[in-house]
Amino acid sequence: MSQKQRGKGIVMKPYSIIAGLFSIVFVGSTFAQEIDTTKLKSYRIERHLSAEAKACIDCHATENPGIVADWADSRHAHINVTCYDCHTASKADPDISTAHLKHAQTPISVIVSPKDCSRCHPAEAAEYARSKHANTLEVIWKIDPWLNHGMNNDLERATGCYHCHGSIVEKGEDGRFTTETWPNVGVGRLNPDGSFGSCSSCHTRHRFSMVEARKPEACDQCHLGPDHPQIEIYEESKHGTIYHAEGHEWKWDSAPGTWAAGVDYRAPTCSVCHMSSVNGVLGTHDVTERLAWETQAPLTVRPSEFKAFPASTDWKVEREKMKKICLACHSPVWTDGHFDHLDKAVANYNDNYYKPVKALVDELYEKKLLDNTKNLDERIEVEMYELWHHEGRRARFGAAMMAPDYAWWHGFYELKKRAMEIEEMVEEVKASGKLARKHDVRGTGGDTAKPDFMK
């Protein structure tokens, strides 16, 4: 192609769309440069597209070229699933976009919820709905005291908690979703249609890539930091070391059920252990499965005994599933030894740290030396919170995922220090005979009302 044909230095980039469906040609510079929107796309229709679907593509190719490019390269596009198929709505739907109706008569919803996805993916949606992911908004309201008594404010929740756990999406008087609750792709988001979650938390829009969801980076957007550093733990483990060294060579796009250990990948990622079909264990979108312990809870219990969200699973059955996944690469001796270490680490945390230290703090409540009107407004309460929510989780997660530094230095070692500090503080309060100092906690004032779905 000559420079004249290219037109003032603008390079034409072809994009293949929908095998045998149609071709889209981008005319313009790379997205980093200014785009000539008058020449952005041209279409050659080789198979049928509905008028509504073509209207979506025609408009958004100009308005949101990145969205159309993502979709065009997706499996959805290849099988003729269009924008309208996922975003369609009836005028009676609670999540219909009134703003969209002002300039286009096609009724759509900005939100594509798990209920919408279930039209084509019913099994995955059902598995997800019963998972701890989908119900994590309820879980944090029940076990994380920062949400209760307004101990953090609405902005802190919107920019922090709700990005991962999900918001309760609400509409304002103007018919638009409120900025306090939207945008949001949290895994436990409560959608206007009553469904929980967002599939695009893991399969980001608009490509919804299975390859992306299989890689540990899909999980590290939420599972990191002082209270749940699963990605840091994974990277310390031998599994993570192998992934970083060789993962670029693995086959990530094998069909579900055919992604095989030792053939397509050499070491597991998060999705291998918790979701994928491996060694005769069926795949699932319920990450609550395959767990024998609830290691995020203050006191470690079996998943079926976790009061905030009791699982309908038998831990013995799930333990055997997880063992079978390990046995795809490891020997029975190695596998049994690993789970023996995990079970003993759980007992060590429960019996030597959480139970005895909690008993000391509870004694102060009983003697009216610690006020339980609000949580986390007294230093001892914060220390106790971090004992289970920070060090306690790191010790248990580190043991579960084979990260010795997190099991010891970031876990049990820090638990010892935290226990000493709490013991000294308890002794000082008891000796004084006075109520422990109450703090005027900064940045409080969040909504303290329980969500309607919990009432």
SSE layout:
Layout (H helix, E strand, L loop, with lengths): L2 H4 L5 E6 H4 E6 L15 E3 L5 H13 L1 H8 L2 H4 L4 H5 L10 H6 L10 H4 L4 H8 L6 H8 L10 H12 L44 H5 L15 H7 L1 H9 L23 H5 L40 H12 L5 H35 L12 H22 L3 H29 L23
Antiparallel strand pairs: 1-2, 2-3
Helix pairs in contact: 3-4, 13-14, 17-18, 17-19, 18-19
N- and C-termini, Cα separation: 66 Å
- What would the average pLDDT be, to the nearest integer? 90
Structural class, please? Answer: mainly alpha
What's the multimeric state? single chain
Strand content: under 5%
DSSP helix fraction: 40-55%
Q: Spans with pLDDT under 50 lasting ≥5 residues? A: 1-33
- Rg from Cα: 26 Å
Put simply, the count of helices is: 19
The strand order across the widest sheet is: 1-2-3
> Could you give the count of β-strands?
3
Shape: globular
Notes on the protein architecture:
This protein is mainly alpha-helical and 455 residues long. It is globular, with a radius of gyration of 26 Å. The longest helix is centred in the C-terminal third of the chain and has 35 residues, at 332-366. Among the domains are: 3-87, no CATH class; 108-201, no CATH class. The chain has helices at 3-6, 18-21, 51-63, 65-72, 75-78, 83-87, 98-103, 114-117, 122-129, 136-143, 154-165, 210-214, 230-236, 238-246, 270-274, 315-326, 332-366, 379-400, 404-432, and strands spanning 12-17, 22-27, 43-45. Helix 17 (332-366) runs antiparallel to helix 18 (379-400), helix 17 runs parallel beside helix 19 (404-432) and helix 18 packs antiparallel against helix 19 (404-432). Strands 1-2-3 form a three-stranded antiparallel β-sheet. 35% of the residues are buried.
